[in-house]
Design a protein that fits this description.
The structure holds two protein chains of two kinds. In chain A, 36% of the residues lie in helices and 24% in strands. Chain A is α/β, with parallel strands linked by helices. Chain B is built from six helices and no strands. Classes of the chains: A alpha/beta, B mainly alpha.
């Protein structure tokens, strides 16, 4: 089988976003191991700036593992190691000079299950800023409004900012987590199945938000929902057994994939 | 590319049924064309009436195929080749229904011709009938077998059919002044040839949809078949 590890057609990406850098995140010869078990094999891909890139594939294919490598979250697991490199804006995230906390500050992450802190809506949003030592009220207020507006939640919660975040609906909680993730103005937003626990209306709102957010952030989303990948993403990467099988423009992947494995997966013929 | 079966058997069954219904519709449309031929050349009104009566079944199949295609899209959200196949099936059924309408048109003209005195010039339309029938059946064969090489031959053959139709109309028009008693029959035959030419167009449309479904190449409105 021919593995196409090439970035999506450059002209297409540049047409959509002529000022964006096509290799904003660059994965080079990347292998990742949980102990002796190799989870990712020779991954090479460039993720374009301010576009949405979807990672799809069956469970265990390595897509979430790759996502969690972008902010080095996998390092929290014992016995993991990697070879190869991941660069953001040309700089390796594994360089000795890179401070992990600072890296994670520049890469927001939203998880499958919304996980607001048992604090007020306001305190959830400014949590990272307070940790960074920012305490000036006007700065925090500005951040709360900007982040909640960015997460399309401001109008729904502006009158109850100091109420518990745990009183929000599931969809609102997930958008609050997105607000929290973008509060620090990260460069990249990682989303690991952000809508899998949401009802259809909340899903639509988050998907709409993803399309808005890509004006400012480079977004990488893991999803099992292929309709969602077609609706939200500009580029799609299909992973299978830890390998990047095909990576191309989303429309190409879902209308005319080059690889038989991709076709079999998206048409439901795997098994 | 040869594909495995879908994991979801209800999806696999729905796609199979859709395809079977299109093939059934094509068999009926092909039979109608042949019945129209018999009605015309054997001067047998029963065959003509059969064509007209059978059209109802073909119309019903078009509606059924549309409904099945919609249901597949609604329930299974097909992607890639599956999506193209569903769309091709729905578009093919429209073309089959229109081809069948042309057979009905031929049958109606044939009935009028039967009511008129026999005219030897009727035999002149046989090559057009043969070519239209062959083009139509090959378009459906290419659909049934996903044979895009066969599909690619259709466009040129349809052009040939267009030329035959034009020549036929010119020849009959030339014959009219010398045979004023047959003018009405000549006109009916010109209309029959026009129906056959339209069947060629439907066949070409079907062939183009097969090429798109199989190879993702959209050759509509292009000069090349490739």
């Amino acid at each position: 089988m021919q593995i196409s590890n090439e970035a999506p057609a450059k002209n297409t990406a540049e047409d959509r976003n002529p000022i964006g850098r096509p290799d904003f995140i660059s994965v080079k010869d990347f292998n990742f191991f949980y102990g002796k078990k190799q989870a990712l094999h020779e991954i090479n891909m460039d993720i374009p700036e301010r576009q949405v890139t979807a990672l799809i594939g069956p469970s265990g294919c390595g897509k979430s593992t790759l996502l969690r490598n972008f902010n080095r979250m996998n390092e929290l697991i014992d016995g993991v190691h990697h070879t190869g490199d991941i660069r953001i804006l040309g700089k390796s995230i594994f360089d000795k000079g890179v401070e992990v906390i600072s890296l994670r500050r520049s890469i927001g992450m939203v998880f499958q299950k919304s996980n607001p802190f048992p604090k007020s809506i306001y305190e959830n949003v400014v949590f990272a800023l307070r940790i960074s030592g920012i305490s000036k009220k006007s700065d925090l207020d500005e951040c709360v409004e900007r982040s909640l507006r960015g997460a399309a939640l401001w109008n729904e919660v502006k009158d109850r900012l100091h109420e518990s975040a745990l009183g929000l609906s599931g969809g609102q909680m997930q958008r609050l987590c997105i607000a929290r993730a973008i509060a620090n103005r990260p460069k990249v937003l990682l989303m690991d199945e952000p809508c899998s626990a949401l009802d259809p209306i909340a899903t639509v709102k988050v998907e709409e938000l993803i399309r808005e957010l890509k004006q400012q952030f480079t977004i990488v989303i893991v999803t099992h929902n292929m309709q969602q990948a077609t609706r939200c993403s500009d580029n799609t990467a299909f992973f299978y057994l830890g390998k990047l099988v095909e990576y191309a423009d989303t429309q190409k992947i879902f209308s005319n994939p080059s690889e038989k494995q991709t076709e079999d997966y998206i048409t439901g013929r795997f098994g | 590319m040869e594909s495995a079966r879908h994991i979801l058997t209800s999806f696999e069954d729905a796609l199979d049924n859709l395809r079977k219904d299109v093939l059934m519709m094509s068999s009926l449309a092909s039979r109608s064309l042949e019945n129209a031929r018999k009605g015309l050349f054997e001067r047998d009104e029963d065959w003509c009436n059969t064509v007209i009566a059978d059209d109802e079944e073909i119309d019903a199949l078009e509606i059924q195929i549309d409904s099945e295609g919609m249901e597949i899209m609604l329930r299974f959200h097909p992607f890639a080749s599956d999506l193209r196949n569903v769309i091709a099936a729905m578009k093919t059924s429209v073309n089959l229904e229109r081809a069948s309408d042309q057979s009905v048109g031929i049958a109606r003209r044939a009935r009028k011709l039967i009511a008129l005195p026999f005219m030897p010039a009727t035999a002149r339309i046989e090559p057009i009938f043969n070519l239209a029938s062959s083009v139509f059946n090959d378009a459906m064969k290419s659909y049934a077998d996903n044979d895009i090489e066969l599909s690619r031959t259709i466009k040129l053959r349809d052009k040939e059919l267009d030329e035959l139709n034009r020549d036929f109309a010119d020849n009959l028009t030339e014959l009219m002044p010398q045979n004023p008693e047959h003018i009405r029959a000549f006109l009916e035959l010109i209309f029959v040839a026009r129906c056959l030419e339209r069947i060629g167009d439907q066949a070409k449309n079907i062939a183009e949809d097969v090429i798109y479904a199989v190879s993702v190449k959209d050759i509509r409105h292009s000069n090349s078949a490739r």
